[in-house]
Amino acid sequence: MEEDDFISKTRRKRQMSELQDLGADLVKLSPEQLARIDLPESLREAVLACRGITKHEGRRRQMQYIGRIMRNVDAAPIAAQVAAMHAPSRADTALFHLAEKWRDDILADTEAIKRFVLEFPGADASVLRTLAEKARAERASGVPPKHFRKMFHALNAILQDSRRKR
């Protein structure tokens, strides 16, 4: 064995633990998400079998088995696919921030609703006006921000619709 090939026991254990964690992420995916990932058939079968196991010890052993299968597979592409499923796209994040900005602008300035409706004609100004009034009242009285969140969701839905229509 050459010195370049040497991997410490600690590093090997860490790698095996990472493979088991990746296997756990695979088990948590929905059937549709799992179908989109390119997996060897033996690994796919082990993941599907793990979903049916409810006993703690049996599930733990099945997770170890999944980790053992993954030792013989190039796990990097699988990990990249799982990470891509969990990470929001840059466009989603940008829309999220834009919705937050519009919400803050509308709460700070009542004229902002007019600007929003001009930019996004599908928006209902009366609904936004009502949500803004209720959100301001919530802030003033110190109650939980229910309408503040509703307003964000309404703005976000309008922005998402406008993105789909483009």
Given the helix and strand composition, which structural class is it?
mainly alpha
How many domain modules? 2
N-to-C order of helices and strands: HHHHHHHHH
Task: Compute the average pLDDT.
Answer: 88
N-to-C CA distance: 59 Å
Shape: elongated
CATH topology category name of the largest domain: Diphtheria Toxin Repressor, domain 2
Could you give a short account of the major beta sheet?
Answer: none
Low-pLDDT windows of residues: none
- The CATH superfamily label of the largest domain reads PSPTO4464-like domains
Estimate the helix proportion, in percent.
over 70%
Hey, roughly how much beta strand do the residues contain?
Answer: under 5%
Class of the largest domain, according to the CATH hierarchy?
A: Mainly Alpha
Counting DSSP H or I runs of 4 or more residues, the number of helices is 9
